[in-house]
Each structure stands twice: as structure tokens, then as C-alpha cells.
User: Which sequence fits this backbone?
């Protein structure tokens, strides 16, 4: 039996290769974490194409820092070849790469949507309770509730604005998320399981589970530490089963400023001036999903809400505005844009926001209000600014009234914003290079989408508007009143001019590194050019 001294002596003589050497254990633990860190870095690296990402991550798990070293070398070689890094700057660049805090985690938005959410029906009753009550007699399946919760949660974490669940075949349902305006398949689920998920959502939305053909509407909500998120649900019977469309109304997402929606400095100044006036009319135009409401909210958030009496009529209310009175359209209950507008005009508010002008009565009242000491903000479904004028005249508004009531018309489309974490210099085609040379554009300022963990591999994160702004001036008033152009001519010319302006505004945003040439082409090409 060895005494204490003997033990210490043994310790000192221990072979380094022994499996229980403390040094070796420490080394193994460090190596393990270094490998995990490498996996994370490789997962976020824009240098790896998405189809090889799983492979690269596996390599990083086993070879750890070696993979990081290879990535670094590739990055340096690419940068030097592209003339973006001089040999002389290499030591400095290396140091920066080693001590760099992860740019991805900084760019990631702070979201309070945690690992779970609390789903509730419109009356605030808990999901499990509602479902248990609705499916009385049947056993409540905890797994189904968990799956439903997970699908909603992952949609929120992925910034989805819509969640669509519909049958792909007899055996399979797909769950798709609309993120930045684009639908993506999130998951495919066995139809039996998915039917149970659909039932659970219908139950919490206050719908009849047994009714599978007739279209139904409902709503539910989720509670998060930051506030409540509302969901509008529509169900309908389709070939092969049932379809659910869930619209996410996220109150916790902050309102955007005029700058954030994509307005240039000059336009911002002009718009601020217009909405400071006591009367007049601002029309925001575009098709569904072109960000009209966001633009209206940006204008409203620019106003002094304490001093002005603001009333909004919306379908649905997407954001709660402090100090404003908001009315939600409910056609079934007889609350329409026209009826609401009629009643609020009696209260004589300062600012009236009309979610959408759809009918002659609303159009007439909105124009009248704008002429009698109210500032009216409204959206209109029209393809361009000139088309908006034509549309208002189609709705029975006389040109003279329109000319005197209107202050400004804005037409807009949304393009996706490049993901700041992974965007890279664009590899231009020869025709694009020629275009740049002809128009004296700096090619090096053009970026392209690549894809990383932050943006779900798409290369885009968020959206921004490109817009055409027409101020009501004497020339335009004259055109309107003198009837020199037929409505058809006006619309045609307007759409053509709009297209040119959109491309110009879009190109400015491409050169600012905000979006890509592909995005501008995608949203402007269907306008015909
Ligand atoms: Zn990205």
C-alpha cells in the first residue's frame, strides 16, 4: 500500500498517454467545444453552398478547427482574387478574423418569442381546455397539441406572415409559411395527424370541427412576454381534404418609420410636410401585399398623436396605435368602411385613416372629408398613380373635386432586402456589366443573395418598398380637369411611367446594397418591360 508521498510520486511519473490523465481530459473537453463552435461557424458561413452545408457541418464536428482554417483560407483567396484584400493587410485581417465576435448573432433580431408560446382562444381560454371541451368523448391527444403549438411557434420564429395547411395528396398534408412574401414548404405531415392538427386549430378559433366543406372564419391568439399575437383563420373544403389559412397579426413587431419602409430623404421631408397639414388626402396604391398598410402606419406614427384626434377604419387592425381610435370592419355585424366613415365624420376627428377605398360611397365621403378640414389617409387598389386617379373617377368622384382634395399619391411594390449577414459581391452577367458601363454605375456596389442560417438559406431578410410619388401640382390638376387624356390613355401612360420610376428607385436601392437586380426585375417585369 503506497503512502501519500508514494501517490504524489506516482502522479508525477504517470504516462501522458494514460486514459485518465487530467490534461488529456481537459484537452478532450476543449476539443469537443471547439468542434461544436466550428459546426456553428460553418453552419453560418456564406462560403458554403446550401446543398453542402450538412456535409460541411459533419466535417466540422469531427475535424473542428481544421475546417475553420480551410474556410478562412478560401475566404482570403477569394478576397485577394477579387482585389478586396491586399497582401499587406493579411496579418491585420487574420487577427480580425480570430477575434471577431460572431457577426451573425449581432445581426439576429432580439425576439422574445421563447421556446414555447401560450395559445388561447379569442376569449382567453387555454388551448388544451378548449380542445378537450370541443372533442368531448375523444381522448385529448397531448402530442397533437404539442405539434400544433410547434408549427405556430416555428412560423413566428421564422417571421411568417401567413401559415397555410393544405392537402398535397391523399396521404400527405403540407405546412407552408409565407416569409418576406414568398411561400416556403416548412413540413409535410401525414394526413391523419394533420387532420387532428386542423381540428385543434379550428377548435381554438371557435369554428365547428364537424363542418369540413363550408368555409369558416375564426381567430385565436398567442401570448408572448412581449405582448399578444393574433391569428385570423379561414378554413375551406378543397379537393382531397381541408385547407387552413392562418394570417399572423403580430402586434409585437414594432411600427416602421418612413425611412425603414424605403422612402428617400427628400420624399420623407415632403410627406412629413403634407401630413402636418390640417386637410388634404394621401392615397397609397398597389396590389394586395404591396405594403400599403405599413406605409400608412409609418405616416401615422409620424404624427403628434397627443394633439390630433386620429380615427382609423381597418380590415383587420394590424397594429394597436396608442392614442388613436381604431375601428375594425366587420361586414357580418354591419360595420363597413362606408358606415364607419359616416359615423366618425360626425365626431369631427382631425385625421381619418381609411384602410381601403373599395366603393363609391366611401370614395365620396373620403374626398369630401379631405376638403372640409380633415386629413385623410387611404389605400386604393390601383396599378399606378395615374390608374388611381382613373379608379377614383370610376368610383364616381368628379375630377374637379379630386384635383382639389388630393395632396399626394404613392404607388409601391415590395422587394426583399438582402440579408446583411451573408450578402456578397454580385457576379454580373455580361449584359449586366454592359448596362452598368453604359449608365455609369459602379459595379462593385452591387450585391447578390447567398444564404445563411439567419435568412433560412434564401439570402434575403425582410422587405423594403420601392415607390413612385406623385404630388398634386397645377400641371396635374390641369390634366385632370381639362380632360385632355381619356381614362384609358391616362392609365396606360401612367403604368408605363410608373414602371420606369420603380426601376429607377429600385436601382438606387441595388446600388446602396439593400436589394438585388433580380428582385427589381421580379417585381417590375410583370408590368411589361
Ligand atoms: Zn443570410
Assistant:
Amino acid at each position: 500500500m503506497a503512502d501519500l508521498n508514494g501517490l504524489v510520486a506516482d502522479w508525477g511519473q504517470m504516462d501522458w498517454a494514460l486514459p485518465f490523465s487530467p490534461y488529456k481530459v481537459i484537452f478532450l473537453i476543449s476539443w469537443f467545444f471547439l468542434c461544436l463552435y466550428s459546426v456553428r461557424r460553418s453552419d453560418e458561413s456564406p462560403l458554403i453552398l446550401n446543398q453542402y452545408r450538412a456535409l460541411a457541418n459533419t466535417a466540422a464536428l469531427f475535424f473542428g478547427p481544421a475546417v475553420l482554417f480551410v474556410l478562412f483560407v478560401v475566404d482570403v483567396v477569394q478576397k485577394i482574387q477579387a482585389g478586396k484584400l491586399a497582401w499587406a493587410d493579411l496579418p491585420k485581417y487574420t487577427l480580425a478574423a480570430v477575434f471577431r465576435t460572431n457577426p451573425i448573432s449581432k445581426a439576429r433580431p432580439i425576439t422574445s418569442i421563447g421556446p414555447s408560446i401560450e395559445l388561447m382562444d379569442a376569449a382567453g381560454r387555454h388551448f388544451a381546455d378548449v380542445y378537450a371541451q370541443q372533442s368531448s368523448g375523444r381522448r385529448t391527444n397531448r402530442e397533437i397539441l404539442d405539434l400544433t403549438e410547434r408549427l405556430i411557434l416555428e412560423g413566428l420564429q421564422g417571421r411568417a406572415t401567413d401559415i397555410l395547411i393544405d392537402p398535397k395528396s391523399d396521404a400527405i398534408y403540407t405546412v407552408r409559411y409565407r416569409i418576406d412574401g414568398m411561400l416556403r414548404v416548412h413540413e409535410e405531415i401525414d394526413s391523419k395527424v394533420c387532420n387532428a392538427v386542423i381540428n385543434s386549430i379550428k377548435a381554438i378559433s371557435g369554428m365547428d370541427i364537424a363542418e369540413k366543406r363550408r368555409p369558416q372564419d375564426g381567430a385565436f391568439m398567442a401570448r408572448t412576454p412581449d405582448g399578444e399575437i393574433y391569428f385570423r383563420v379561414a378554413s375551406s373544403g378543397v379537393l382531397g381534404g381541408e385547407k387552413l389559412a392562418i394570417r399572423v397579426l403580430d402586434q409585437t413587431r414594432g411600427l416602421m418609420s418612413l425611412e425603414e419602409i424605403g422612402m428617400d430623404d427628400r420624399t420623407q421631408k415632403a410627406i412629413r410636410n403634407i401630413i402636418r397639414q390640417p386637410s388634404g388626402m394621401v392615397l397609397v396604391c398597389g396590389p394586395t401585399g404591396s405594403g400599403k398598410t405599413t406605409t400608412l402606419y409609418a405616416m401615422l406614427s409620424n404624427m403628434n398623436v397627443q394633439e390630433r384626434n386620429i380615427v382609423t377604419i381597418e380590415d383587420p387592425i394590424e397594429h394597436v396605435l396608442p392614442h388613436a381610435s381604431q375601428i375594425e370592419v366587420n361586414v357580418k355585424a354591419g360595420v363597413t368602411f362606408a358606415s364607419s366613415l359616416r359615423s366618425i365624420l360626425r365626431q369631427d376627428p382631425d385625421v381619418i385613416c381609411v384602410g381601403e377605398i373599395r366603393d363609391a360611397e366611401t370614395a365620396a365621403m373620403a374626398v369630401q372629408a379631405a376638403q372640409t378640414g380633415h386629413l385623410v389617409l387611404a389605400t386604393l387598389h390601383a396599378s399606378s398613380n395615374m390608374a388611381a386617379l382613373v379608379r377614383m373617377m370610376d368610383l364616381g368622384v368628379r375630377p374637379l373635386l379630386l384635383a382639389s382634395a388630393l395632396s399626394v399619391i404613392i404607388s409601391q411594390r415590395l422587394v426583399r432586402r438582402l440579408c446583411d449577414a451573408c450578402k456578397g459581391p454580385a457576379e454580373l452577367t455580361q449584359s449586366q456589366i454592359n448596362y452598368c458601363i453604359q449608365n455609369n454605375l459602379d459595379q462593385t456596389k452591387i450585391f447578390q443573395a447567398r444564404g445563411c442560417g439567419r435568412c433560412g438559406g434564401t439570402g434575403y431578410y425582410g422587405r423594403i418598398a420601392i415607390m413612385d410619388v406623385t404630388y398634386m401640382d397645377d400641371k396635374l390638376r390641369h390634366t385632370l380637369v381639362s380632360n385632355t387624356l381619356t381614362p384609358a390613355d391616362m392609365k396606360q401612360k401612367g403604368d408605363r411611367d410608373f414602371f420606369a420610376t420603380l426601376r429607377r428607385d429600385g436601382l438606387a436601392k441595388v446600388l446602396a446594397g439593400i436589394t438585388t437586380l433580380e428582385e427589381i426585375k421580379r417585381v417590375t417585369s410583370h408590368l411589361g418591360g
